[in-house]
Amino acid sequence: MSSPIPAPVPLHPDARRRLAALEARLAEDLALLNDPPANWVPPTAGPNGEPVSDVVVVGGGMCGLVAAFALKRAGIANIRILDRNSAGLEGPWMTYARMETLRSPKQLLGPAYGMPSLTFQAWYRATHGSSAWEQLFRIPRPLWMEYLRWYRAVLKLPVENGVHVSRVGPAADGILALEIAGSAQPILARRVVLANGREGLGKPTIPAFTDGLPRERWAHSMDDIDFEALKGRRVVVIGVGASAVDNAATALEAGAAEVRLLARRAVMPTINKLMGVGSYGLVAGFPALSPDWRWRIMNYAGRQQTPAPSNSTRRVGRFPNAFFHFDAGIARASVEEGSVRLETTKGRVFETDFVILGTGFTIDATARPELEPHTAAVAAWRDRYTPPPEEANEDLASFPWLAEDFSFTEKRPGEAPWLSQVHCFNYGATMSLGKVSGDIPAISEGAAWLTRGIAAALFRDDVETHWANLLAYSKPELIGDEWTDADAPARAEAV
To answer: pTM score, two decimals?
Structure first.
């Protein structure tokens, strides 16, 4: 089941004072940066005079929050942030994420957007003390959500919870309509940012063998799984990546009789290959690479597979009733005599009571109901690039082909030009722009790129209004008493 939102732990008086001091410092930092800047975007009205937001951010998790903060810092104030979940349940952290700690090192800046007083470290030192910070190994998952809730509150980011965007499409020239589930009144916007997470532009990867199983006998790792119901039962987890390992550990801790992790690979992946080139150079340089190089890098890294974190794997390994099996891809599945029967491609048979799919997500814009009925117009990598035969990879081919401002592009020019007003600020941007819109390390850089692109587009679209304002501007810089015209007396005498 989803983790309940933990009740805030009352802060010690010293921690309250430290947090108040941090918030005062943050307020001063923002004031020194002239925050909030004046809004410079001219107002827009809908076809019938309705209000139109300049930007609507879909998603109030980490990506949505830092995107909204970046937009506000750029003087784009007429924004809305929508999230379908209840307050405190935005993003995966308190729903289907089941790791004990984050993978990212604790000192990474994440969504701080260049502000030291907005980092997790600053918040943690204030609320827990510097000594606790020095002893902290990795960031506990619930604590990261607590930090994001503080981030939202201290920056006064107006997230509207319980608002589910069901469809995005054109409403009028230059205006998009966001249909809201349960409401007959759409929300109008000039730009839409899809900051809706790892699954925000795709779907869970469901292997074909599940066709032979009743739905109640299996779950994907992103499902709301009742782990208490697995107590005393046999569980098979498909995969050995991070989500597979975390779900296996959760089942074991809930009292499962046994948990077996089945992997197609012959050996456990142990090296996080992208760490070998991890740097600001990769962040800044990846979008500038040719399609050949971007494909080569992501194809190689994906085929090597990112291993689960060491502490997550040890979390499973400390249970004697946990078993790792390799070279165990599943050929078929069925239910026989009350048990789930899994037959591997090598002919081995495993019997279990419940199967958890730690198989990740497939990026595929055509699978998203938000973009229907226009999904076929979205250009994917397969429409723009053909890799060498030995590097063919259908998973990568389905990623959207994005512009440098994260906006979608048309498969065929003129088919759906409004797609350039929708920005994919989620994991779907990885192939085009790198890991700057989903993972913690470079999320602030991604938000800066996104904001620069949106600001440029808004200014370009309103250039005639800005030109008129330029012509009409008449506030004098000088009022006439700042200088003396040395030749004025001579001119007066000549008259």
So the answer is: 0.93
